[in-house]
Fold:
Amino acid sequence: MIGLLAALDVTIGLARVVFLVSALAVTVVCVTDWAVRTRRVSPFSGIARFFRNSIDPLFEPVERRLVRRGGIPSNAPWWVLAAVVFGGIAIIWLLGFVRDQIVSVAYAAEGGGRGVLRLAVAWAFGVLQIALFVRVVASWFQASSSRWIRWAYLLTEPFLRPLRRIIPPVGGGLDLTPLVAYLLLSLLSSFILKGL
Structure:
């Protein structure tokens, strides 16, 4: 177990360095490509020719999606940079999450039946909180009908529906029930876990 945790710590440290260096390199490439696309760099220079021939084909899939959604093609480098940064953050967070869950399982195993029950309760509340988060983010992008998001609605609707009867939307239809539900889940989780 200790060896696995040490390996995960090394992997997380290495991932941080790799993603930082990658983000810096992609930043330089994206800024230069953006400057070429917006004619801040002469289109006849060697840099512009290199980027048009070598880098622009890499950005082409992102550019096509942007154009289909009504975006500006010259913004493709910024979207690539955002994807690299957020992808790196997500992978590092995921590795840390896996490490924390391994530690939790080890502590639960040491605690016997009570420890396993505490872990199961913590995981159940954690899944509900993640479902709330996914649901809120999906609503920002109007992706609520996606089959990848449906599970979050199935898990959260049973306790959001009664809250909506009590808490009306505020200014412009802003629904605060997911925030209230998240706070209530946190309180209920800590109350139950203290009792176990």
In short: Residues 1-110 form one domain. The chain has a mean pLDDT of 87.
